[in-house]
Amino acid sequence: MPISIALYQPDIAGNTGTILRLGACLGIAVEIIEPAGFDLSDRNLRRAGLDYLERAALLRHLDFEAFEMARETQGRRLILFTTKAADAYTDFAFEETDILLFGRESAGVPDHVHERADARLLIPMQTGARSLNLAVSSGMAAGEALRQTLWSRPCA
């Protein structure tokens, strides 16, 4: 399975809809680790995703353990994006099957999720800035991962 974006218990339907639209446009799956802070049929989710939701590859996981079982079966690396990391995402060597994990807008991910990550990456920001919008962060990360893997291959 190619690169995917995973959202750990997302809080904001609009961000998730935007990320689903991103996934549809870039050809990458979006995995949602439930419970989400909104109904996945939420009107805001549909509004942000527009007509792209029908084209999006959405995978839902009942909880983090179900997600981990699926990931381990597939032998994929878990790459966590967090403000608590020391390594910049632009200095990391992505692989074609990586899962790019983003935490809740309100709380990030708990320690047990941090511990399961194969790598923890940071999007560098100006001093004093707390965090970027989740959809912006996932777009930056997906763009870099795809640039290094899929987009850097010669065309056939």
What is the CATH superfamily label?
A: SPOUT methyltransferase, trefoil knot domain
How many domains? The number is 1
Structural class: alpha/beta
For the biggest sheet, the summary is: 7 strands, parallel
Strand content: 15-25%
Here the CATH topology equals Alpha/beta knot
C-alpha geometry: globular
Name of the CATH architecture: 3-Layer(aba) Sandwich
Average pLDDT confidence is 91
Question: If you had to describe this structure to a student in words, what would you say it looks like?
Answer:
It comes from Fulvimarina manganoxydans. Its main location: cytoplasm. Its EC number is 2.1.1.207. Homodimer. With 156 residues, the chain is of the alpha/beta class. The chain has a single domain, classed as SPOUT methyltransferase, trefoil knot domain (Alpha/beta knot), CATH 3.40.1280.10. 34% of the residues lie in helices and 18% in strands. It has five helices and seven strands. It has a seven-stranded parallel beta sheet with strand order 3-2-1-6-4-7-5. Helix 1 links the parallel strand 1 and strand 2. Helix 1 (13-26) runs parallel beside helix 2 (43-49) and helix 1 runs parallel beside helix 5. The model has no long low-confidence stretch (mean pLDDT 91).
